[in-house]
Amino acid sequence: MKKSKDFKEIELLFKKLQKNIINNFHDLDQKVKISKTRWKYKSGGGGISCELSDGRVIEKGMVNFSSIEGLVLPNSALAKKIKGGVKSFLATGVSVVIHPDNPFVPCSHFNIRYFETDNKSKKNWWFGGGFDLTPYFVYLDDIKSWHESAKKVCDKYKSTFYQDFSKQCDEYFFNKHRNEKRGIGGLFFDNLNNQKKSFYKEFVLDTGNTYLESYVHIIKKRTKKKYNKTHKTFQLIRRGRYVEFNLVYDRGTIFGLQSGGRADSILMSMPPSVIWTGKKDIKLAAFEKNLKKFL
Q1: 88-121: per-residue pLDDT in tens?
Q2: Residue 95: strand pairing partners
Q3: Distances from the Cα of 15 to the Cαs of 12, 65, 95, 206, in angstroms?
Q4: Known active-site residue 177
Q5: Annotated catalytic residue: which of 26, 99, 109, 177?
């Protein structure tokens, strides 16, 4: 499937966004190790996976770019979204997950993606993405600033975006088997193609810059706060919920694995260490009770 002019432009802009995000995290954490891997996809294209590790601020993270050509598989997450005689697709995107070292700094996720298919209709493309925040110790001013930033970027484009995408975020990032949200929310959107392509292109790039600015602001406020072993243990327990969502429900993970993507890149979002336990002492139980007020 031949890349359109629009696809090539969006692909280049996504690459630039990846580079900008990596540079900003490196400026924030001079000690973080950055490891880049270039890879090729079996049916065309590939990507640049960037792993961040062992930093003063960032314990583990990823800032990945991909641009692939693939076949629409009957059992893939993508196949459920498109009907008709579509046999192949082009997809490009940027995915970010950061697991900070300090338990008082929340984990964050950001993703944007763009698809084109070989369908001859005018609606053979769409955008998706969003960002969300997963704290272990909640600060109300962090929640406020996070959602205010999300609303601000949405309101620049359409007055209903924030209400719709915030609701979709809460519904999507939900561990049904735990009956709890993964975090305190943000934005989630998919299948955006009702307006001009340039409109959505600007919107998704703007969400990337908003995510970066909002998250760095929170990191700077929380990363020097002292913590003890119990705080760290609680962080590792709650990271388990993050893993559960990514492996059981996350569409990106399912689509990537079903379509034969690079497993190391797909699973790079996982935290470096996790604890699963049903045993909690009084302090851990209190931490969980306080957190669940917001989930």
Answers
A1: 889 999 999 999 999 999 999 999 999 998 877 6
A2: 64, 111
A3: 5, 7, 11, 14
A4: no
A5: 109
Class of domain 5-292 (CATH, top level):
alpha beta
Which structure tokens are listed for 280? 């909690």
CA angle 195, 116, 157 (to 5 degrees): 25
E-assigned strands of the chain?
Answer: 33-40, 45-53, 58-71, 88-100, 107-117, 125-134, 174-175, 180-181, 185-192
Q: Which pLDDT score, from 0 to 100, does residue 211 have?
A: 98
The residue assigned the tokens 């893993």 is 243
Q: CA–CA separation, 92 vs 75, rounded Å?
A: 20
Instruction: Tell whether the model's pLDDT for residue 80 goes beyond 60.
Output: no
Question: Counting every residue, how long is the chain?
Answer: 295
d(CA 87, CA 70): 9
Q: Determine contact, residues 173/245, Cβ cutoff 8 Å.
A: yes
Q: Is the pLDDT of residue 179 over 70?
A: yes
Give me the pLDDT at residue 240, please.
95
